[in-house]
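pinging the channel bc i need a second pair of eyes. not urgent but kinda urgent?? the chain im working w is below, pasted from the shared doc
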Amino acid sequence: MEAIVDSREPPWIAELLRRICKAVDTRLLPVGDIIVHRDRCGVLVERKTVKDFFGSVWSGRLWEQMAKLASADEVAGVSIVRKILLVEGSFTQQAYMLDEPRKKLASISGALMECQFKYRIPVIQVDSAVMLEEFIRVLVSREEVGKNEGEPEERWFRPIRPTKVPERDVKVYVLSSIPFVGRKLATELLKEFGTIARIANASRHELMRVPGIGEKL
């Protein structure tokens, strides 16, 4: 795997990628901050801190960046097949450093939806620099083996195991499906005879001993 890092990014980003990529190039990118690629085909990442994100929402700069990101098919000679907006930090903590934090959070929520639904850019939030490092490391690893391509693997789908119904409940259900035999009478019959077979073989006199059974039945 190879990477290209925008020259305006903090040095530690390129240093991290040098530890996990075969080659890392640093240059001024026209859009995005990080490109992770294999055979000149890969993912474009726009990285922001929450402070940057708030500022770009208020200034309107975010929408220009999202438009460029959404339309980027090739950057620095790399064919872009995936795009990510990666935001580092806590939106709530940042909002509560400002006036009217709830209103700020409402505006940010709308902006996040705009990015996802209108620009179709996945937004991924990481809450710390440590999580950011892990995300980048895993991103490189998954891109290298093609795990971000195609349909979900079957191993992700866990079959729903049917809940085992107690045997007595099954018997009650079977008996209560007989006309004029409800759940209450079915329960009384099982209490008296124990099994459906014994109920079927019981005499009229034996059945009459069960509460709820009268002459009509």
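so Strands lie at 2-6, 23-27, 34-38, 41-49, 74-75, 78-88, 123-126. and The two ends are 80 Å apart (CA to CA). — does that match what u expected or am i reading it wrong
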